[in-house]
Amino acid sequence: MSGSRFRSAGQFSPPRARRGVKPKQGLDDEAMEEIKEAFNLFDTEGKGIIDVRELKAAFRALGFQVFQLFDEDGSGGISFRNLKRVANELGENLTDEELQEMIEEADRDNDGVVNADEFYRVMRKREDPLDDLDSDDDF
Asked: Recorded GO terms, molecular function (predicted)?
């Protein structure tokens, strides 16, 4: 096999099920269907498997979706108001000062909002575990 491959969700059987132990209730049918649809979007070869490049593309796309959750008004940037709304929706009790500090830390061009590039830079600050999978020789 050339390169690293990940199997489709439908190709896995839960370890507990293989051992005769009934698995706990997991995702409902609707959630599983959404996952399968998302998987199929990134299975560019239609083989029921995705390689590391396709998996990375999926994670980048998910990052874009997260940005859109913050940028509800579609302005192309995350404002203080956007960040405060999301923090409140998540039940985070952050002060206005803490939220403003978050904006200022991420806002590299000092325009008062966090644009998509700045947002992704913050998201990538943590080491990406998939960076180690760049080489097909890893497996």
From this structure: calcium ion binding
